[in-house]
Amino acid sequence: MESICNTTQQGNERMILVRSNNENCCKIQCGNVEESYIREEFHIVDLNQNKIYRNCLPSLPRARGPGRMVASGKSIFIFGGLDPFSEESPLFKFVKSRPEPHFHMCASHLHFNPLDLKDRLMVRGAWAQAPPMNTPHGYNSTCLNGHVYSVGTIYFSPEVLYVDTTDIEGLGPWKSLYCPPELFKCTPCLPLIPDPTANRILVHFYGGQLTSPCLYAFYPPDRQNQDGETGNWRCLNSNFPGWNRVVDAVLLDGVLFLHGRKFPDLLGAYEVDTGNWLNVQWSTRVIEEGSSIDDDCHFKFDSLFCLDNTNKILCLAVYSPVLRRSPVEGGHGNSPSKTTLFFFKFKVERICSTISLTPLYTRSYEIESTTEVLNFLLL
To answer: Mind telling me which InterPro entries this protein's record contains (predicted)?
Structure first.
């Protein structure tokens, strides 16, 4: 399906990595015990070329808990996943004894060349073991200047994994970063927002000793010139409520675009340096034939991307699982399950204190034998 609302000059538009669960269980014999697990599969969507590359990366055993993907240069990382209490399980012991790396080991990374996607469906590369975070389940992470930063989930625990592109095998270990006293036992919210132009990461906090939710900026140290430094934190807004409405967020030209289904226009726009909220308006409220911006219960978008900084192109994404259908009379079982990926692409233009949004088009793709999409990641 493709609904063209408008056209735009294409710039250096980025692609989207999709991580999903295959519906089929894999079984292995662990001594006298038979264990089963689900494989995670990876697909890449190129909206510019209207293509999806299915199963184009090597698969991984499904994580035992939540995890997050981040991209640094030509490397993809997955952190989180393993519950420490499952280390005594027969499956964990079996996987740990095998030579090939697995996501069950808390962290994995894949080094590949994205340009390969233009000519072939499979990406050369293999998953390898990555250093696990010091904080269990610290999967609230992002990349800035090629390095991976995490701030924890339940409690604030900042750390960094320096990535040397000339020695991708020599990763780690993670290094702890400075924690300001006022943020002790505060909870950092998803997502972290990298701001490469200002060399900082935006983080929203609540709880702990804070009297109200706050927006902070972390300025990382210069690794070469400030050895031993652990970075600086600065409060940008000491009263920033409403983040519980936010599903995802991106930064474009100093404006923080916040997506949430409770926003009347799907998006809120906040200028970081001035602390001002901007007006948001759509040139048309039609997303595609039969649906509009006002149908917020229809799409339930869960991811927001900045596809093209030059041409100011943003994209909302969601997946819609299609459950197994009842077996037809005379059939031999259920039909395969599948998942539909839906993308809504639009252009951003700022006019004084107003953000004007223009729908471009929608596209959707199906992935067979898939029960759930775990993450989207902008490459």
So the answer is: Kelch-typ_b-propeller (IPR015915)
Question: Along the 379 residues of the chain, how does pLDDT read in single tens digits?
Answer: 333 333 333 457 888 999 988 888 777 666 676 767 778 899 999 998 899 988 888 888 765 565 788 988 778 888 765 444 455 566 566 656 655 545 545 677 787 655 444 544 456 667 777 887 877 666 789 999 989 999 988 889 999 998 876 666 667 788 889 899 999 999 999 899 999 999 999 999 999 999 999 999 999 987 554 455 678 999 999 999 988 889 999 999 999 999 986 788 889 999 999 999 999 999 988 877 767 777 655 567 889 999 999 999 999 998 876 544 433 334 444 545 788 899 999 999 999 999 999 999 999 999 988 888 888 999 8
Cβ proximity of 364 and 332 under 8 Å: no
Q: Pick the closest to residue 107 from 135, 146, 145 (CA basis).
A: 135
- Alpha-carbon gap, residue 316 to 78, rounded angstroms: 22
Q: Hey, which residues does 133 pair with through a beta bridge? A: none
Joined together, the tokens standing for residue 246 give 């936010």
Separation between Cα atoms, residue 199 and residue 12, nearest integer Å: 22
Most distant CA pair in the chain, distance: 72
Relative to beta strand 255-259, strand 248-252 is antiparallel
Residue 213 token pair = 């939710």
